[in-house]
Amino acid sequence: MHVRLDAATKRKLERAAAYEQKSVTDFVLANALAAAERVIEGREKIPLSDADWQVFYDALVAPPEALRKAVRRYRKRTGA
Questions:
Q1: Distance in angstroms (rounded) separating the CA atoms of residues 48 and 65
Q2: Vertex 51, ends 58 and 57: CA angle to 5°?
Q3: Is this prediction's pTM over 0.85?
Q4: Are 7 and 15 contacting, i.e. CB atoms less than 8 angstroms apart?
C-alpha cells in the first residue's frame, strides 16, 4: 500500500513511531488494524443490557407461539 503524505504528517507519524519504538510502517499498520477492529466490532456486534440479553435468550430458548407459527408457515412455503 502506498500513501502520499505531506511533510508535516510524515514528521508527526515518525515522531509517534519513535515514541513507541517502532518503524513508521509498523506504527501505522498497528494503528490502522486497531481502527479497523473497532469499526468492524461497532458494525457487527449489538451490545445488550443484562435485561435485554435475558429477553433475547428467553425468546431463543422458548419462543412465543407467534414466532413458532411464523417458522411453521415459512417452512411450509419454502419446503425448508
A1: 24
A2: 20
A3: no
A4: no
pLDDT tens digit at each of 80 positions of the chain: 899 999 999 999 999 999 999 999 999 999 999 999 999 999 999 999 999 999 999 988 988 898 889 999 999 999 98
Same domain, 53 and 40: no
Residues 10 and 28 in one domain: yes
- Same domain flag for 40 and 3: yes
Rounded CA-CA distance 16/26 in Å is 11
Give residue 50's identity as a one-letter amino acid code.
D
